[in-house]
Specification:
alpha+beta; 182 residues; four-stranded antiparallel sheet
């Protein structure tokens, strides 16, 4: 007699059955998983696009706030402008890349950009903060909108509008433009 016994695989009736899944169980599980994914993926796309819009709008706000604080600290003009090379300001067009620079010596303080399909548009190619911390266009306080957009209906509010009001106040709002960009 031995003390160790081999594990028994037979049931009380003498039949043995291997543990596992049947083909029918596997097919039902895959069908349920496919249905759940079909429901969840569009929601994730809207969430990802919304986060991309918000993060780009926050990058613009950070650039504007940096320009304002550096204009006050350095007692000089600091500009946020559209750029193509990351070293100098460019003429009017989409703001897919922008820089923050000190006007007196062209020192670039920040270089930021977006990735397709995001688009950033503005009615002006630059925003210049003066030594008093206010953005002026000529002599008047600057009011400007920078629009961050993604050409899709997911999310429904496919634009983030960065509003520069009274030369220094900044606010972000959401806008539904029906999936189109300006």
């Amino acid at each position: 007699m031995s003390c160790a016994s081999a594990p028994e695989t037979a049931t009380a009736t003498g039949n043995s059955r291997a543990a596992g899944f049947t083909l029918v169980e596997l097919m039902v599980t895959l069908a349920v998983a496919a249905i759940l994914m079909a429901i969840a993926i569009p929601s994730f796309i809207a969430l990802i696009n919304g986060n991309r819009l918000t993060s780009t709008a926050n990058e613009l706000v950070a650039s504007l706030q940096l320009a304002r604080s550096e204009a006050l600290r350095r007692n000089t003009q600091v500009r946020v402008c559209r750029s193509e090379d990351g070293a100098s300001c460019a003429a009017a067009g989409q703001w897919n890349r922008w820089i923050t620079l000190v006007v007196s010596n062209d020192e670039v303080l920040r270089d930021a950009s977006t990735k397709a399909p995001l688009q950033v548009t503005s009615g002006t190619p630059q925003i210049t903060y003066h030594a008093d911390g206010l953005a002026r266009n000529g002599g008047a306080l600057q009011d400007n909108d920078l629009v961050v957009c993604i050409p899709t209906a997911r999310p429904a509010e496919n634009q983030r509008v960065v509003n520069l009001l009274s030369g220094s106040r900044i606010a972000i709002s959401r806008k539904d433009n029906g999936g189109a960009c300006p």
